[in-house]
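Readers outside the structure-tokenisation community will struggle with the description of the input data as it stands. For illustration, here is how one protein appears when written out as sequence plus structure tokens:
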Amino acid sequence: MKTKGFLHGFTVFLIIFLPVPVFAQSTADLDARLRAVEDYLEKLPPSMATYAGSLEESINKYTKNLENGLNKYSQKLEESVESKLLGLNQKMIELDVQSGAYKKIETPTGSFLIAVNSSEPVRGGYKLSLQIGNPNYADYRDFTLRIVWGKRWDENSIVTYQQWRDSLTGSVYNFNGQLLRGKWNTVEVELIPATAEDLGYIECEMGVASIELDTR
């Protein structure tokens, strides 16, 4: 009976003693995992805030670039449409000081050719020598030239196309003389005020007062 009691006591002792380290180990592991989760949660808000700020900055940058792109496209479209309209009616043309190439210009009484023969500085501006060709079968008398000049527009600048148009200088020149048929006729105009850079863009419009025809 004593032996039986001894074995029974020993069994109870083992059951109580063995689970203690296992329970302690599981608790420590759980605590470690809990601390890791807390650390992650503490680090999460700043990273999310940084991400949100970066995302907002990217959106703002994209929106600004999109607006700039649309503005430039609008200005280029406006310039293109205006240039094509001018090219269609040829009532207003752009003169090229560098190449001296002639352009066809139309008036209510006929078509002419016009080119810049030379340019030279004068006090406060520049003097242009123009060649006006009369390819018609009639002489013309008393004509006007409306000339607008200024710096050439840079589509990459912050200046809009309309602002550039408003910055141009213009003047009307009246001539009391003949434009002889089948000939180049030389006239001179002074662009004042003007700098060399202001010769980058010159547009011209022409009007004629009267026509002279031979009678038989």
The longest strand covers residues 110-122.
